[in-house]
């Protein structure tokens, strides 16, 4: 029995979304992996982009709204577009680069905005350094979460495809 690509991709994403609501380490979340995965496997670009934004909005309804939402949501749109761009050259290398670039860019960009907008740090070189140093533990968990979820999502999909449970993509 062969299931449709979209159905299998959606089921894997539902599992990843549910894991967002389980107890986890700070920043150890599936959203970056979901963004890349959706960009690769959803043929409908709008669905691929809206999915991580919907996950974040739903989470933020429970966790709380904050000033960095536009920055964070914008980054997840970028990661979805990255997934769309690596679709044709998908492999361990492209996934590793996308995951690492995503984690690093998230760390650099969001912490820049924390430094500039939060009022927690002085707006000088010392405050800048303090902000990034304080964020290092979160970066470690973010990196670990991104690579864990990228491995689980893409690995599971690959295995299901190889075992014939999901139909392989047709050449365009």
From TrEMBL:
Record keywords, A-Z: Membrane, Transmembrane, Transmembrane helix
Transmembrane annotation, as ranges: 49-82, 94-118, 138-160
Protein name in UniProt: ECF transporter S component
């Amino acid at each position: 029995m062969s299931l449709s690509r979209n159905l299998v991709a959606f089921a894997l994403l539902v599992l990843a979304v549910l894991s967002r609501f389980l107890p986890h380490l700070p920043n150890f979340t599936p959203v970056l992996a979901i963004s890349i995965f959706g960009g690769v496997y959803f043929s409908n670009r709008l669905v691929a982009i809206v999915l991580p934004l919907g996950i974040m909005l739903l989470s933020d309804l429970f966790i709380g709204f904050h000033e960095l939402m536009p920055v964070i949501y914008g980054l997840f749109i970028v990661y979805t577009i990255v997934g769309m761009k690596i679709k044709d050259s998908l492999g361990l290398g492209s996934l590793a680069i996308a995951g690492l670039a995503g984690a690093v860019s998230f760390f650099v960009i969001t912490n820049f905005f924390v430094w500039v907008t939060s009022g927690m740090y002085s707006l000088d070189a010392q405050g800048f350094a303090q902000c990034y140093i304080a964020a290092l533990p979160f970066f470690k968990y973010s990196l670990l979460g991104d690579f864990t979820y990228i491995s689980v999502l893409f690995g599971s999909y690959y295995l299901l495809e190889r075992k014939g449970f999901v139909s392989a993509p047709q050449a365009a």
